[in-house]
Known about the structure:
The protein is built from six helices and 35 strands. It has a 16-stranded mixed β-sheet that branches. A five-stranded mixed β-sheet has the order 19-22-33-23-32. It has a four-stranded antiparallel β-sheet with strand order 21-20-28-29. The radius of gyration is 22 Å and the shape is globular. The relative contact order is 0.16. A hairpin with a 4-residue loop joins strand 30 (373-375) and strand 31. By secondary structure, the chain is mostly beta strands. 13% of the residues lie in helices and 35% in strands.
Amino acid sequence: MASSIQCSLLFSLLLFFAAAVAPSFQQPFHPVALVLPVSKDASTLQYVTRISQRTPLIPVDLVVDLGGQFLWVDCEQNYVSSTYRPARCGSAACTLARASGCGDCFSAARPGCNNNTCGVTPDNTVTHTATGGEVATDVVSVNSTDGSNPGVAYDVTQFIFACAPSFLLDGLASGAQGMAGLGRTRIALPSQFASAFTFSRKFAICLSSSATANGVIFFGDSSYNFLPNINASQSLAYTPLYVNPVSTASAYSQGEPSSEYFIKVTSIAVGDKNLSLNSTLLSIDSDGYGGTKISTVNPYTVLESSIFAALTEAFVQEVASMNITRVSAVSPFEYCFSSAGVTSTRVGPGVPYIFFVLQGEEAVWTITGSNSMVEVSEDVLCLGFVDGGSRPRTSVVIGGYQLQDNLVQFDLASSRLGFSSTLLGRQTTCANFNFTSSA
């Protein structure tokens, strides 16, 4: 009886995703990859992408949350769509969303407020605020890609997402209508796109360092081609991805693992000096503390206090030997320097490289001046790392600034991370994907 129920459930989930795909007339049925633009909001330092959603389709701006559990949008303000469908209790959408509750709404029916529906907990990971929200489906349309240009758009007609109240937008970039979760769940964007179009559970992000030029997010199995004719796939080194057994969300159920992406830093060096670190901080313990994660929500890399102290002490010693003068701190940074004595190189300001040595053969993430130094004024450069305190949940959080102009690939099927280190050394940037359509 139990196996019969499991087979029936699996069959219903397969039917759900089969019904969810609607390629336009005369298009090939399955794209091999999809592509989204991603821009940097200069005010909040958040990364924002744009999808098309609803019927009729409208552009929807979303803050990118690399470890986010799912797509959530504000349904209170002007959500109008003829294809919006609340997820009824016991439906395949509720099962995929791992929705824990079933309830009614005691107001007039509208998107986000319907009877006999299941709910999840949309999470604003910028402000660490979470609330209840209705699970629903609607049309989402995204461009395909051959790895070099965007192609024709494809629709997922029953894309699962969560409705949220308007107050959850507080703290997000101006114009954002929600957050795009790319995390380790069955209804995050990578898994839904992979299921809908039967391509690899793989995606890659390449964040632009410019506030005026877009970076790119790839979904599926394509090459990653940037002008002038650079295949960044060839630059990737690999390290295993780890699952934190304890959720890092603002609200979660007992026993729920984290949807964020963790890797294993084995050591850190500044120039040729290896740092003396408490190695236990670099592993995830049974309570979910420690380790290293990657985040697009944190604007800069955050380090546990003892790791921060070791790294900054070594860095200050190295730059002093280069006759670079330390100046007053500029919030949120503690270590700032006069730019007068800093040379300019192809890979950013000429300062000591920082090396994150990861698990795996030749898996060394090299942080050059372009990703370590932040220009806060014409005369001042600051080391772009932040002290996270003595007992943070995660010991090392690699933030957005350190990801800029780095191609980072998340292969969920193989549970591994590919990373390029800076693309500047290959004479290209994340802003050099050619968004001119080939369709």
